[in-house]
Amino acid sequence: MKRLLLSLALLLSGVVGAAAQTPCGGVNFVPAPGVSCLLEPTAPSFAATGIGIVPASTATDVACITGSATKVVRIQTIRVSGTAGTQIIVPVVITKHASVNTGGTPATGTALPVPYALDSSNAAATATTTAWTANPTIADSSPGIIDIGDLILSKTDGTNGAVAPYTLFEYNERNFMQAPLLRSAAQQICVNLNSTSPSSGLVNVSFKWTELAQ
Fold first, then answer.
1. Which one has a higher pLDDT value, 176 or 49?
2. Mean residue pLDDT across the chain
3. Can you tell me the distance from the alpha carbon of 42 to that of 169, in angstroms, rounded to the nearest whole number?
4. Is the pLDDT of residue 184 over 70?
5. What total number of domains does the chain contain?
6. CA 117 to CA 125: how far, in whole Å?
7. Which value, in Å, is the radius of gyration of the alpha carbons in the chain?
8. CA-CA distances (angstroms) from residue 75 to 25, 64, 89, 171?
9. DSSP codes joined into one string, 10-70
């Protein structure tokens, strides 16, 4: 009897373990308590990275992502890193604009972030991204401040001490809270250096986001 009960217990544990790892999903699917859904995200996902952006003197907005007329753009992460002639700590402010920037000098080459689909089967991104080497005019007179962090720009020649490799703003691991959203082509989320002047600075900015129908 003991052997029978032990065999039954082992069998049941195997079934439960398998069920706990069963792929699941669907609009009306509600997983049972303890069930882990191994489902690949299906929201079209994109990234855009500007490498070696030369920020303006007293830099304000160095890079922005602009929303779409046809999709809801959900920001997942924004990562900022860089170097400077002299090590400096600069504030990085993430702002949301109700109207898009104008003017300025757009970055070129690899400094200009270009949207790229993370899955080759995705349609082309409808959000757009840009970076500037001369400050744009911030058309929104009172942009919302949604995040802030300090960024250590290490010395270009690597002679400084311990440094933080990047500053990361994460919005993809959230419970009961929305990601920063862009619902029209008139809205932007921007990386702003709060009018600081990194000496001989080079800044890298990477946006990751998803797009779904309005």
1. 49
2. 85
3. 22
4. yes
5. 2
6. 7
7. 22
8. 23, 12, 25, 7
9. HHHHHHHHHHHT-----TT--PPTT--------S-EEEEEEEEE-PPTTEEEEEEEE--SS
